[in-house]
Amino acid sequence: MRLRTLLIWLAVVPTVAMGTQVAVTAERLLEQSARLRADVEAAERVGAPLYTLLVDMQEERTATAAQWAGTDGAEAELRIRRAATDTAAAEFRRLADDPSRSFTEVTRQLDRLPAYRQRADTRSGGADSTLAYYSDVIGKVIQVYQQEFSHAEDAELAQASRPVVSMLQATEMVAREDTVLALAGPSGELSFVGYDQFVSSLGAQRYLHEALIVPHLTERDERFYERVVGSEDWQAKTRIENAVLSGHKDTVAGIKVPAEVGGWKSAHANFSVQMTTLNIDLARSVLARGEAKAAELQAEVAWLIAGSGGGLLAVVVVVVFTTRSVLRRLRELHERTVTVAEETLPDVVARLERGQTVDPQALPSVTGDRDEVGRISDAFARAVSVSVDGHRRLAAERHGFGLFASGIASRTGNLVSRQLSLTEDLQDTFGHDEALLAQLMRSDQLTVGMRRQIENLLILAGGEVPDPHTEPMRVADLLREAAAEVEDFRRIERQALDETSVEPSVISQISHLLAELLDNATRFSPPKSKVVIRAELVADGLTVEIEDRGPRVSPERYEEMNGRLHQAPPYSVLAQNAHRLGLFVVGHLADQLGATVTLRRSVYGGTCAVVVLPAELLLPTEGETPREPARREPALPAPAAEPAAAAKPEREREPDTEPDTEPEPVAHTSAGLPSRRTKAPRRAAAAVPAARPAPAAAPTRPALPERVPQTHIADQLRAPRVPETRVPQDTATPEEVADAWADYEQGTQTVEEELRRDQP
Which of 89, 315, 700, 757 has the smallest set of CB atoms within 10 Å of its CB? Predict the structure, then answer.
């Protein structure tokens, strides 16, 4: 979307939104004004008859109570009150014809009036239930006032109408007191229920006057109210109420009221008229306020429409002129920016990536203009400068970090090599102590793992693993060398190994890659389960499969891990996964070798790592001449070989090869124990130690060759060595090799059992 369109929308959207808001507000105000006028009209039409009905129902209720109590002249008074009620009810039914208002509930209650009058005349049922009907009708009338004329949607009118409803409720409470006292009759005795009703009504009307009426009266209405409550009749009312509360007497049938109750009727007749006048004045005041509020709302709508229309017109004019000016200046800035972005900056970044210097004159400079467009141009120039400086610092930091990490890894690797050399010397010296030798082999294995972690650091820093090999290595030896790098190497089982060799320059890289995968497989699979590694030739080269029986992994997890293997992540991702860098190292090595590594689910439920090495890294094995692998291979102490054939090295047999396959060599220490292979390539066979006399009855067996110390370290650290003699070719028969291997396994099992017994 073009900037011109955006600016137009910037003007259109607020204009439309403001116009919509004005329309909605005006409609709401007009609707509120119309509702206020409708309420005022309904109050003027129905309010007066409804109030008349309320007063007449109160008086009829009192007359009904007097008739029920047997008061003299009550029947004539009741006929007069009933006639007045009928007239008020008929007038109310005639005017309350609006179905949308809550007048129907009062009408429905009035339809039951004849039935209750008949019950009062025949005195059927109780007086309380008959009088409760009148109270219910009066309550519905007050509820109509509260719902229809309280103006709850307007806070000001709601505040003004609150005293009206509260006054009606207070008047009703006083009328109930009048009814209860009339029910006492000539005997002046009330039932316990009647006395409770009197006390409740008295408390309610006093609370209404004090809390809900007086605080909300206007100054004019408050003066009138004070005259009413200060009159002699209101004071007489208060004295009688207090006398009933404090001067009554309990009898067996009920409550005996004091003689002061006789003055209640005349006092009530006088102050009730004054209260009625106050109620009417309050209602008229609310109606006048409602009418004024409706007119005020209409005037507010008119001013709102006029002011909003003028404001919208001014906004449109300003936006049109502003848009044209901004577009013109931004067009010029755009042309300059495009030139820098498409020509200048790409050339500068390319030069930095090639390691060349950058001419500062080629970059945009800060002009110092104070207008807005000039500030944007200067900000762009500063951004370009910061970007170029960032690229320059990033290139320098990456190069420096690579050198730093490589130096640390190299120095630490030398220390580890010296540690391995020391361990070899200790193995040669104390090889006769099988328990100590087992611990030394354990220390040697941990040191080898430490060396592999240092090589990981070197690989991730951009370096390469040093490879001292000068001759090809068979795949069988390569897999054995990789397994020797793993701490739990006894669980690794090698299968289906091809007689194929690997280029000398990539032996260390491939061995390291497979060692990382084997270490991962042994650590994330059950402790007693086997990890199988197999290799075979395929059309694309050599495939190596490493299969474990570890926990089930989801397809999403496999996809994430394969992503790490196929694409080198940035250092930020490495930092977040510093505790599991094995896959990153494997990915780097696979990228250097041109190999592919894929993780997938195994048929046994674990994980299978498939490594495909390209064919150009492979060589055919010539003559199947065995050679000693370059890396160190772990082994446990075994019984010394028989001295009958000590000058001939014995070949080691793969567990999964055929019996007629030529065995492979195993180096031994001076004590006759199998030794781990060294890192450096074999130069000459070690001299065979002097053979010890064998028992006469034992068959003659060849002694295994002794390991050569210090052959894994760098040339700079290598100590002067005496010339070595080459071990002659082994001529042992397959049966002799099998017997020697059985003795080796028996000795290994014996040492393992002793170590388990020694553990706590």
Answer: 757
